[in-house]
Amino acid sequence: MYNFEFKRAESLEQAAQMLSAGGQLLAGGQTMLASMKQRLMQPETLVDLGGLSQLAGICEDKGAIVIGAMTRHQAVATDPLVNSKIPGLAKLAGGIGDKQVRAMGTIGGSVANNDPSACYPSAVLGLGASVKTNKREIAADDFFQGLYATALEPDEMITAISFPVPEMAAYAKFKQPASRYALVGVFVAKTAQGVRVAITGAGNGVFRHAGLEAALNANFSADAVEGVSIDASDLSGDLHASPEYRADLIKIQTQRAVNQALGKEG
Fold this sequence. Notes:
Elements: E1 5-8, H1 12-20, E2 24-26, H2 32-37, E3 45-48, E4 58-61, E5 64-68, H3 73-78, H4 80-85, H5 87-94, H6 99-104, H7 107-113, H8 120-126, E6 130-133, E7 137-139, H9 140-143, E8 158-164, E9 168-175, E10 182-191, E11 194-200, E12 207-208, H10 210-218, H11 243-261
């Protein structure tokens, strides 16, 4: 580790000022601190958001579940409101990393980082959520912009995420056993506007699949997925899985998610 300045924000306004001055926001630190140890990140100033209680918490507002950016994964996984209204989101949160990661990691930090194998981006995109910042509200379809890239401006921070309550939704993940990140994860949501299918772990970032959505809009069943072609040419390949293997996993995890949403699989 190298020398850096550590500051604790006492208010949202102060955090925004520190961010504008070049500070790097510290939420749960599950990605950032590891990256700093490896010298992949070298911020001169860390701005700790841990003291901002207004950025944590879960509530219901106008038919949506609103989760503060500093809410820990474990809190999402065990919250009665989330488990009642969007159980698929609670299950997703309960499957992130290990107990230590879930105790410290935050939803805002995960979404802002936009790791291509992270779980939360698939829920945000799959549910058509809105990302609230200190400046504006950004639709999920506009927020994620590729590998570790988002629509956030340099002086902008996530304050909360608003998840519309779907008719049904579920998440299925084939995890990389060491990191527990998604080798392929699929979030399926049946909403009043139609079915949304968001995939993580298979490409340069989370993405929706039009073919799967069309098939499931016509027939919301695992059988409907069989006839959908998954193009492997744009998928990731690495030592853990080839693009073709990930294409097969997308279909399998989509079927699992649909069955979970229908109550046919635990």
